[in-house]
Amino acid sequence: MAEQTAAQRELATLIVECLNLEAVTPEQIDPDAPLFGGELGLDSIDALEIALAVSKRYGFQLRSDNPDNRQIFTSLRTLSAHVEQHRVG
Question: Which of 31, 40, 55, 65 could tie 77 with a disulfide, CB 3.0–4.6 Å?
């Protein structure tokens, strides 16, 4: 497993907290593993929860109609990169 950056660790913590993932710690989320359809077992409702938590924490919206969502939500690494590019402040 690749090591998480500080930004990835912060985002992994947000994901674990907002989804109440009791069996997973933020450190266990591989930055390159699929967020959906993989070990985490996340689904489209989880994506909405993550998008809401990201908008509250980082000050920008992940819109459900964004054609790039499949790429953005591929892994912790891709989601973190998107957050770092668009976060406010």
Answer: 31
Tell me whether residue 8 is exposed, middle or buried, using C-beta atoms within 10 angstroms of its C-beta: 0 to 12, 13 to 18, 19 or more: buried
> Which phi and psi angles does 9 have, rounded to 5°?
-65, -40
40-52 burial, b for 16+ CB within 10 Å, e for fewer?
A: bebeeebbeebbe
**Tens of pLDDT, residues 26-61:** 999 999 999 998 889 899 999 999 999 999 999 999
Count Cβ atoms below 10 Å from residue 68 Cβ, excluding itself.
Answer: 11
Q: Residue 19: which of 2, 36, 1 has the closest Cα?
A: 36
- CA angle at residue 42 from 77 to 63, to 5 degrees? 65
Write down the pLDDT at residue 64: 87
